[in-house]
């Protein structure tokens, strides 16, 4: 399946999971509050080097990482690098546990994107706490007090990430 077919399949999956219509208005960061679940969270900063202070900005036009936490069955889907990810999660208060996380498909064959994808998977696996920003448009994934990744609420334009 080509990139367009994969993107179309993913978009249809997202629409089915979120219950949104493709022609729904596009929201941007800072608008109505969004819950952790059933929201598209796009990776914007990542602990790329493994040092807590080394959060690296991810280009906003990149599809290198995003995740959706499905509220109905506590599953998650998304992308890490060029690979689709699937897994399970549970939430108790601000505690977050992600399990059974797997990546499918081929790697990017671009060392930077592969490295970001690998680190994003690691940040998801190691997450123990999540925090939403005051406007609920910013999601922080933490391991204890250490910030591992920052994701922003984003509704993509049709067929674009």
Describe this structure in words.
- The protein has 161 residues and is an alpha+beta fold.
- It has two helices and nine strands; from the N terminus they run αββββββαβββ.
- It has helices at 3-18, 111-126, and strands spanning 40-47, 55-57, 65-69, 75-80, 83-92, 95-104, 129-132, 138-143, 146-153.
- Strands 1, 2, 3, 4, 5, 6, 7, 8 and 9 form a nine-stranded antiparallel sheet that branches.
- A hairpin with a 7-residue loop joins strand 1 and strand 2 (55-57).
- It is globular.
- Residues 1-33 have low confidence and may be disordered.
Strand residue percentage: 35-45%
Number of strands: 9
The structure class reads alpha+beta
Any low-confidence stretches, pLDDT <50, length ≥5?
1-33
Note the overall shape: globular
Largest sheet: 9 strands, antiparallel
Kindly, what is the distance between the CA atoms of the first and last residues, rounded to a whole number of angstroms? 18 Å
Question: Could you report the average pLDDT, rounded to the nearest whole number?
Answer: 75
Could you spell the SSE succession in H and E letters?
A: HEEEEEEHEEE
How many whole angstroms does the radius of gyration measure?
Answer: 15 Å
- The level of helicity is 10-25%
- SS element count, helices: 2
